[in-house]
Amino acid sequence: MSLPKPVMRGLLGKRLRFHLPIAFTLSIISAIAFKYAVTEPRKQAYADFYKQYDSVKEFNAMREAGIFESVRPSGE
Amino acid sequence: MLATRALRLVGKRAISTSVCVRGGHGVAKVEEYTLPAYFDRRESPLPDVSYVRNLSPEQQSLKEKEKGSWAALSNEEKVALYRISFNQSFAEMNHGTSEWKSVVGGMFFLIGLTGLVVLWQRKYVYGPVPHTFDPEYKEKELQRVLDMRMNPVEGFGAKWDYENKQWKK
């Protein structure tokens, strides 16, 4: 019947000391991972696309396909 | 705090009735629900009255013994005193039920029933879909999407090979 007295104080502090470092490191790691897995490849993809991009050629191809309303294909 | 509790619990209820003598009619009847009640609840650990209100002779002698030194009480006597004052311990009143199983089962069953109703509705209630769902119309839509060069960097248009007019391998 003589149990040890349970811990009455410092419960929040103990929880924070345990969880806060873990929370911060995990969020920083996930931010870094997102940057190097998603945003850097995306920037590279856009850069590569526009290196070889001829806007006039693309415009003419779209015009021949007939999707514009302001310029009709050259045949008509 | 405990001393006042002990005094209150010796055989009597804590009654707070108001005696109204109205010209010849006597005392107003005390309703059961107006008196302080016992309840097991985690957020208010000490109810207004003890659980056992009419003590048996052994319990009364135990209460007399409680007035002395508590170190003289044995463990069984301490538990007996606890059970006089309280119905369930915190462990007993807090332990979970298996109610969640019936809740989840009921959820799945009703979702399935709803699915059957939706299927019947689709077959017997709704009319045909618009002509824009026909395969030929969908092909023309796809061709127009590719002509417009939609999402040519990372999305849909990026997967089409415009030189060879086929999907990229």
Automatic annotation (TrEMBL), chain A:
GO terms for biological process: mitochondrial electron transport, cytochrome c to oxygen. The chain crosses the membrane at residues 20-38. The keyword Membrane applies. It is a single-pass membrane protein. Gene3D superfamilies: Mitochondrial cytochrome c oxidase subunit VIc/VIIs. The keyword Metal-binding does not apply. It comes from the Eukaryota. It is found in: Mitochondrion inner membrane. Keywords: Membrane, Mitochondrion, Mitochondrion inner membrane, Transmembrane, Transmembrane helix. Pathway: Energy metabolism; oxidative phosphorylation. Pfam families: COX6C (PF02937). GO terms for cellular component: mitochondrial inner membrane; respiratory chain complex IV. Component of the cytochrome c oxidase, the last enzyme in the mitochondrial electron transport chain which drives oxidative phosphorylation. The respiratory chain contains 3 multisubunit complexes succinate dehydrogenase (complex II, CII), ubiquinol-cytochrome c oxidoreductase (cytochrome b-c1 complex, complex III, CIII) and cytochrome c oxidase (complex IV, CIV), that cooperate to transfer electrons derived from NADH and succinate to molecular oxygen, creating an electrochemical gradient over the inner membrane that drives transmembrane transport and the ATP synthase. Belongs to the cytochrome c oxidase subunit 6c family. Component of the cytochrome c oxidase (complex IV, CIV), a multisubunit enzyme composed of 14 subunits. The complex is composed of a catalytic core of 3 subunits MT-CO1, MT-CO2 and MT-CO3, encoded in the mitochondrial DNA, and 11 supernumerary subunits COX4I, COX5A, COX5B, COX6A, COX6B, COX6C, COX7A, COX7B, COX7C, COX8 and NDUFA4, which are encoded in the nuclear genome. This is Cytochrome c oxidase subunit 6C.
From TrEMBL, chain B:
GO terms for cellular component: mitochondrial inner membrane; respiratory chain complex IV. InterPro entries: Cyt_c_oxidase_su4 (IPR013288), Cyt_c_oxidase_su4_fam (IPR004203), Cyt_c_oxidase_su4_sf (IPR036639). One of its GO terms (biological process) is mitochondrial electron transport, cytochrome c to oxygen. Keywords: Membrane, Mitochondrion, Mitochondrion inner membrane, Transmembrane, Transmembrane helix. The chain crosses the membrane at residues 102-120. The keyword Mitochondrion applies. Pfam families: COX4. Pathway: Energy metabolism; oxidative phosphorylation. It is a single-pass membrane protein. Coiled coil: none annotated. It is found in: Mitochondrion inner membrane. CDD domains: Cyt_c_Oxidase_IV. Component of the cytochrome c oxidase (complex IV, CIV), a multisubunit enzyme composed of 14 subunits. The complex is composed of a catalytic core of 3 subunits MT-CO1, MT-CO2 and MT-CO3, encoded in the mitochondrial DNA, and 11 supernumerary subunits COX4I, COX5A, COX5B, COX6A, COX6B, COX6C, COX7A, COX7B, COX7C, COX8 and NDUFA4, which are encoded in the nuclear genome. PANTHER family: CYTOCHROME C OXIDASE SUBUNIT 4 ISOFORM 1, MITOCHONDRIAL, CYTOCHROME C OXIDASE SUBUNIT IV. Belongs to the cytochrome c oxidase IV family. Component of the cytochrome c oxidase, the last enzyme in the mitochondrial electron transport chain which drives oxidative phosphorylation. This is Cytochrome c oxidase subunit 4. It comes from Labrus bergylta. The lineage of its organism: Eukaryota, Metazoa, Chordata, Craniata, Vertebrata.
